[in-house]
Amino acid sequence: EQVCSISDYNTSRLIVELETGGNIRLEDGKPTDVWYSSCVDLVNSRFFQNDFTAYGIADLRVVRVTRIHNRFLRNRFEERLESLVDTSEPGYKRSLE
Questions:
Q1: In sequence order, what E strands does 29-93 have?
Q2: Under a CB-based contact definition with an 8 Å cutoff, are residues 49 and 59 in contact?
Q3: What is the pLDDT of residue 95?
Q4: For residues 67-93, average pLDDT
C-alpha cells in the first residue's frame, strides 16, 4: 500500500511537470541543501505553540521540503529587475540587499 501511495505521488508530480511543458519543476530537498534549512527555519519561526494547543499540537517537525522552479515567474522577475536595475554592472546584486 505504501509503494502504491509513493508511486501515485511521484506520478502526479511528473504529470504537473509534463502538463506545464517543463515550466514548473519540483525538486525534493535534502537537509544538506542551504535552501532546505532556510525553509525549515522559516516554518519553525512562524509556528506559535499557543495557537495550536487547543488542537493538541505541541510541536512541529518538518519532514519534507519541496522546491518549486517556475520558469515563467522567474523570467517575469528577471525582466522586471532589468527594467529597474542596471544588471550589466558587476555588483548589482549587492545593491539589492
A1: 66-70
A2: yes
A3: 66
A4: 84
| C-alpha pair distances (Å), 47 with each of 7, 20, 27, 29, 66 | 31, 33, 24, 21, 19
> From CA 20, how far away is CA 51, in angstroms rounded?
37
CB 26 within 8 A of CB 17: yes
For the cut 90, the answer to whether the pLDDT of residue 51 exceeds it is yes
Is the torsion defined by CA of 97, 77, 74, 27 positive or negative?
positive
Rounded average pLDDT over 57-74: 92
How big is the chain, counted in residues? 97
Q: Are 66 and 28 in contact (CB under 8 A)?
A: yes
CB-count exposure of residue 28 (10 Å: 0-12, 13-18, 19+) = exposed
Q: Grid coordinates representing 60?
A: 512541529
